[in-house]
Specification:
The structure is a single chain. Helix content is 19%, strand content 41%. With 508 residues, the chain is of the alpha+beta class. Strands 18, 19, 20, 21, 22, 23, 24, 25 and 26 form a nine-stranded mixed beta sheet that branches. It has an eight-stranded antiparallel beta barrel with strand order 1-3-4-5-6-7-8-9. An eight-stranded antiparallel β-barrel has the order 10-11-12-13-14-15-16-17. The chain is globular.
Length: 508
């Protein structure tokens, strides 16, 4: 995913842990050089402690802009690692190495990770509280953020296990595997299970690309220590039990052992996790037409697609606007959000085609050919089959948002091809100089751009780049044009349903 290429950069640019002048750490200091009387309020070590930083002010050092803040950040420590967790969701929880230096009634915590640094000065008022100043220095060696405020300190065992696994998907990558079970339950070396843990102790198991089956099961969780979870459950149909032991090496990855059917299948390997936003399914008022496919003469690829029709389509006789949602393999269920709100629109969700084909079609080098497929083949097919009007909305999430950036850059002069764009945490760091040049050429030929662009982004994902994209369009002073950017403080993988549900109300 594009998100994995930029998550570190975004965490830095929109860091929950910024800082500025006044928090430079001392050099050549150690615990033995401090006053034993004053030093008594400073802990000898931060191992198994939790520090809560409560901001009063954040300053952007490059612009001098100061902002009042009450944001909270949690720091937890073992002997080598520091976990930083922003409670308001400005950044992903992250692990750093750190150093701890005491000097009188103050102490410095300095983190390093890939070249960036947070230097935090803690001035203790007593053993459990005080004030802090924090400076953030980026990869380029430039200090960019300064934070100040108050802190509290308390004892807390260091842990890497999540507090909850609800709405978390675990990808199990098999390194060893053996099985006497049917293929839909069997681990296969080189393949992977996806287990999506849901509320009410339900889990959806997607065994691998080798089997289209999706298996329901239940589960229970036991934390065996601060780095391990044991999950036990039963498959709904076969009644086979499973036991999954997870050992976390980071906050989102580690190693596992898996037993299914009391020894009938076994596997080991590594895992990674993502958060997701569930979409409730119910008896629709509208309906899905049924899965179809189209083979493109432009890309030579076969794509699956699904069409949702609103409740009164069969009887109204009227024409409808159409939403074209990319990545239908993940987002076909957007239709439930439309149906719940009784939106009077058709939605077409088109799959990526073969696995990871989106990483060709949606990228700048593949976008021109995929655009020809959309405009010359796919959309004409939809419009000749269903009663549609001229209002088209394009929806792209992540790399699909980058495809949207290309489509926007080649919008024709005059009537817009897509009246609306919903681009959700788009991978705008992938916008090329050629795309920007096309934007400029389109603007210079005619500054009227009669369409709406609805952006959504998260600082835990592509937020900085999406904001840069928005500012570039705003700077040109188009006419008949609107663009907005709504921030969501969740992970990149949670963005799709949340943002679509919010933004669709602005259009229909």
């Amino acid at each position: 995913m594009f998100k994995r290429m930029v998550s570190i950069a975004l965490a830095l640019l929109l860091a929950a842990c910024g800082g500025g002048g006044g928090s430079q750490s001392p050099t050549n200091q150690n615990a033995s050089s401090t006053s034993p009387i004053v030093d008594s309020i400073v802990p000898a070590t931060l191992v198994d402690t939790k520090i809560t930083l409560v901001d009063t002010e954040i300053q952007e050092l490059l612009t001098g802009v100061k902002t009042a803040s009450v944001d909270k950040t949690i720091l937890t420590f073992d002997n080598q690692r520091l976990v930083v967790h922003s409670l308001d969701g400005r950044t992903l929880p992250s692990i750093y190495g750190y150093s701890f230096i005491k000097n009188g009634s103050a102490a410095w915590v300095t983190t390093t990770k890939g070249g960036d640094t947070y230097a935090i000065k803690l001035a203790f008022n007593d053993k459990s509280s005080g004030t802090f100043q924090e400076t953030y220095t980026g990869f380029d060696g430039v200090q960019s953020l300064f934070r100040s405020g108050n802190f509290t300190l308390e004892n807390k065992s260091f842990s890497l296990t999540p507090e909850s696994i609800i709405n978390t998907a675990f990808h199990l990558n098999f390194k060893t595997a053996s099985s006497m079970l049917e293929p839909e339950e069997s681990p296969v070396v080189g393949e992977r299970f996806k287990l999506s843990f849901q509320k009410n102790n339900a889990v959806l198991v997607e065994p691998s690309n080798l089997s289209p089956a999706k298996l329901d099961a239940n589960y229970s969780v036991n934390a065996s220590d601060n780095f391990s979870l044991e999950l036990r459950g039963v498959y709904a149909i076969t009644k086979h039990t499973f036991k999954l032991n997870l050992r976390f090496d980071t906050l989102t990855s580690g190693t596992f052992t898996l037993d299914i059917g009391d020894g009938k299948a076994n596997a080991t390997g590594d895992f990674d996790t993502i958060k997701f936003t569930p979409i409730d399914k119910f008896a629709m008022k509208g309906r899905f037409v049924g899965a179809s496919t189209i083979t493109s003469s432009n890309t030579k690829i076969t794509y699956g697609y699904e069409v949702y029709l609103p409740p009164d389509y069969q009887t109204s006789g009227k024409n409808y606007p159409v939403i074209y949602a990319t990545d239908g393999q993940w987002y076909t269920d957007f239709a439930y959000l439309l149906d719940k709100k009784s939106k009077d629109v058709i939605m077409v969700a088109i799959d990526e085609g073969p696995k990871d084909r989106r990483m060709k079609d949606f990228l700048p080098e593949g976008s021109p050919l995929y655009t020809k497929f959309l405009k010359e083949e796919f959309i004409p097919l939809i419009e000749s089959t269903y009663r549609t009007n001229s209002e088209r909305t394009f929806v792209g999430v992540s790399a699909g948002g980058l495809l949207g950036a290309y489509l926007l850059s080649v919008e024709p002069v005059g009537a817009a091809y897509f009246k609306n764009y919903i681009l959700i945490d788009g991978s705008m760091f992938g916008v090329t100089t050629a795309i920007i040049a096309a934007e400029e050429a389109r603007y210079k030929s005619n500054n009227s751009l009669p369409l709406n662009v609805l952006l959504a982004a998260t600082p835990q994902g592509n937020g900085w780049f999406v904001n840069e994209f928005a500012q570039r369009y705003l700077s040109r002073r188009y006419t008949n044009f609107s663009i907005s950017n709504q921030e969501f403080r969740v992970t990149h993988d949670e963005m799709g349903p949340l943002a679509f549900d919010a933004l669709i109300d602005k259009l229909y």
